[in-house]
Amino acid sequence: MTDATLDSEDNKLVVLARSSRARNGSAEGAAVRDEIGRTYTASEVNLPSLRLSAVQVAVAMAASSGARTLEAAALVTEADGPSEADLLAVRDMSAGVLFVAAPDGTVKGRHR
Fold first, then answer.
1. Which domains are assigned to the chain?
2. What order of strands is seen across the sheet that includes strand 70-77?
C-alpha cells in the first residue's frame, strides 16, 4: 500500500501528521479530519503528569472544537500499528478509518 492508493484528502492527513511529527521532533504525529473538512494535527504529549498519544491529542482537539464526527485519521509512527487506546479514541467519534504510515509516508495499514 502506498500514498498513491489514498485519495488526495486522506493523503493530506498523512502529510500533515508527518509534518507535525517532524516539526516537534516527536516519535509520532497524527492528523484527523472532521465531518466538515476541518483538520487537526498533533504530536504526543509526554509531561510528568499527562501522557497522551498523538492520536488522542488530535481527537481531543477536534472534540473540543465542536466536531461531532471524524471522517478519517492518520498516524505516522515507527511502530507497527496503532495502540488499542488510539483505535478507541478514533472509534468514539468515527465510523471512518485510521491510516498508519511510516515516517517516510508509506502507508502501512488501515484500521476501522
1. 3-111 (3.40.140.10)
2. 39-43, 28-34, 70-77, 94-101, 107-111
In three-state form (DSSP H/G/I as H, E/B as E, the rest C), the secondary structure along the chain is CCHHHCCHHHHHHHHHHHHHHHHHCCCEEEEEEECCCCEEEEECEEECCEEECHHHHHHHHHHHCCCCCEEEEEEEECCCCCCHHHHHHHHHCEEEEEEEECCCCCEEEEEC
pTM score, whole prediction: 0.92
pLDDT tens for residues 1-33? 444 478 999 999 999 999 999 999 999 999 999
Distance CA 62, CA 58 (A): 6
Between strands 107-111 and 94-101, the pairing is antiparallel
pLDDT digits (tens, 9 = 90+) for 29-84: 999 999 999 999 999 999 999 999 999 999 999 999 999 999 999 999 999 999 99
